[in-house]
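To close the chapter, one final illustration. This time we ask the reader to focus less on the individual chains and more on the assembly as a whole: which components sit near each other, and how the overall shape emerges from the parts.
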Amino acid sequence: MQHSTERWLDIAALEDVPRRGGRVLRLPQGCIAVFRTVDDQVFALEDRCPHKQGPLSQGIVHGASVTCPLHNWVISLETGEAQGADSGRVTAFPTRIEGGRILLSGDCLRVGAEGADA
Amino acid sequence: MTEKLVVVGNGMAAGRALEELFRREPDRYEVTVFNAEPRVNYNRIMLSPVLSGEKTYEDILIHDDDWYARNRVNLIRGEEVIAINRAERRVISRAGTVADYDRLIIATGSLPFIIPVPGHDLPGVLSYRDLEDVEAMLSAARKGGSAVVIGGGLLGLEAAAGLKAQGMDVTVLHLMPTLMERQLDQSAGYLLQRAIEDRGIRVITRANTHAVVGEEKVEAVRLDDGTEIPADIVVMAVGIKPSIALAKDAGLEVNRGVLVNDLMQTSDPAIYAVGECVEHRATCYGLVAPLYEMAKSVGAGLAGDDSLAYEGSITATKLKVTGVDLYSAGDFAEGDDREEIVLRDASHAIYKRLVLRDNRIIGAVLYGDTADGPWFFQLMKDGTDISDMRETLIFGQGFAGAGPLDPMAAVAALADDAEICGCNGICKSVIVDAIAAGQSDLDGVRATTKASSSCGSCTGLVEQLLELSLGESYARAAVQSMCGCTDLGHGEVRRLIIAKALKSIPAVMQELQWKTSCGCAKCRPALNYYLLATWPGAYVDDQQSRFINERVHANIQKDGTYSVVPRMWGGITTPDELRAIANVADKFAIPTVKVTGGQRIDLLGVKKDDLPAVWSDLNAAGMVSGHAYGKALRTVKTCVGSEWCRFGTQASVSLGVRMERFLWGAWTPHKVKMGVSGCPRNCSEATIKDFGVICVDSGYELLFAGAAGMEVKETVPLCKVETEEQVMEYCIALLQLYREEAHYLDRMHKWLARVGMEHVQEAIVGDADNRMALVDRFNFAQQFAQTDPWSERAAGRDAHEFSPLATPDLEAVA
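The assembled structure is written out below.
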């Protein structure tokens, strides 16, 4: 995946996302799940589980993984890859934190999660 | 005058015979023992641990100097008896010591069999019989180099393992196709060879030794096919032969060994023989158990008791190589009159075989898991008829006797394509394959196959498959851990939370050494519940450790929308409530309105963002959360009872409403459903609830531990009471006991199955003080629990849960 580092979206303050939790960001291109881990790392994934399109943003966050609320698939926040016996992946988007703000790669607008919105 | 007893030989058999004699008649004889070795009696079967360095000579002493002194035994060390003069009743040693006897015991043991190949007498060729041999091997091993062990039997393999442990390069040569063929069948022999090779020991089977090669000392071993294997020492461990020369020279009857009758007397009744030198009923023994049995007979006979005849032994063997578990007993050759039961587990190198004749065990070979060896051996010796436990016999003592209806047998009988996990569509063969590929516990099977990872109702079956595949090794495993983050089980964690006064999830994880930084989706909700139930009022509920439904107080649906179920106390509603529900459904365009099985109304398809507004409207009409989404009190289902029904015996509706109003809001290990029926016709289906009340003329029958989920469970009776007040008291106490004791996600019936009826009866019914204490603790906790979560959130709490992040300015980056 190519991504251009010049284009970053300022989407929220770090505090807007609870630790060990997630929020959803609705974009015209689809929903993005934004996660914050216990050690304040931030990750962004397409908000649809590769299994049955469950909203990952509603799952329980543990370590650098999220457990989907529908059928307990565990998805890596870093790669978007399903863990354990399951296979499948969702797109993971680069993020960074600057001055307490969460920046999301503009790639989410380009490669996007087309048709992801429920 | 005291009789004189002389013992020729000071091995284990002689020592045991003396012990038996002294136990019976400590003063009857003046005892002299000749020992060809310059030592006291030591445990010869423990030579291997001495060789491998795991034990010292001192560790394996049986009788120390003090024992000989205490029993006034004259021990003559390092003197070999060379002649018996039966006419004069005296023996003479090589050193010239003469001793007279009234009774004599020949316990000369056996000699190692040395293959008479060229070079067999070169320095560096050793046998493996006594401490001298061990010391010679140890001193060779200190120089390093290589060793060849000829003979892949019990002694040879123990010698090989010991020499390897001492750092030598070791090759085992064995004449036969498989190792230990006298004790093991081919399958076990193969597993054994693999285990020996895994230790870096080379094994050559079908190896016929042609010569030991060397000029002044051993240099190599040459096989028939010309192969030469370099060797600094050669250990011959190809067998033993009874040491009979002394007896034969004295004119006693001998064959392979010294012939004895059942009283262990030789052809001269004044002379006993015992141990490896003996031939009894055409059998010579080389294992310790039969020698001890013979020795008992000898000791008794010397004490004047001729009733203790020796009638031969069935022998059992255990290989003393650390890390190799092997047990064999009895006769395991195949034959037309024999049947066998075999259990194999390739990945865990477990092999068990029982040979049966006429429904009795006559042979057993166990490899990899030998725990049941002694039990099988006992059944064999006792000649026990095993027909009744045949189905489960191979699984060992822990399972046997359960009869053919044992669930293990049922699981074993399932076809490979039988579906085990209905949620994920996993069949038996997928699970069995995962176990064969190395999964050895529930978590492993869950992680690799998904079986039992959803609703969990097939967990028992999966565990049985694990037991079936892994044998005793699985059953012996520790308590099932909560999850992969810890080795502790639920019970242990609950106990430690109280014992160590742990009051937060990070405290639990730190103190109980969690293996992950912040747990997982399994342990976090469980810990959150345990802390909440243990420290009401003090512990702050961790929203991030709750499943989405309990975090947003609604049920997530497949499309990411939610369902909303307001409480209808006891199933009673009003026109105003119904109007409010109808208005909410219209206002928020809720697509489906459905009546539930718990006598209330479900609004399905509510958008998450709308939840607080929906709740606000419902609150305005006096309705609160029905906790249809929670591990909590769900409904109290009622029938109309004596208020309307012509059969009703008590006021079941008002009782149900009272119960629900008192109990709502309490978090529990799993969902809790209750029912109150106004008469035994049971229209509220109280007999499949976690707690049920059946009203009768004379009072109330209290039932519990029913369920109608994946498993249908009928309730069991708790007790009968007379008043509504008592119903409340018992119901509250039971709920609190369940809250305090159950493992997270165990319905009441699972908790009952674990703790047992007697325990619950005693805690609730049998002990009024305890019952009241439970009620008090529940009441204390309820003051923190009975706040409507909907009104809190309608008022703005946790707003971040119900709104998306603000859409950023997309133009800025376009």
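Chain A has one helix and ten strands. The radius of gyration of chain A is 13 Å. With these observations in hand, you are ready for the problems at the end of the chapter.
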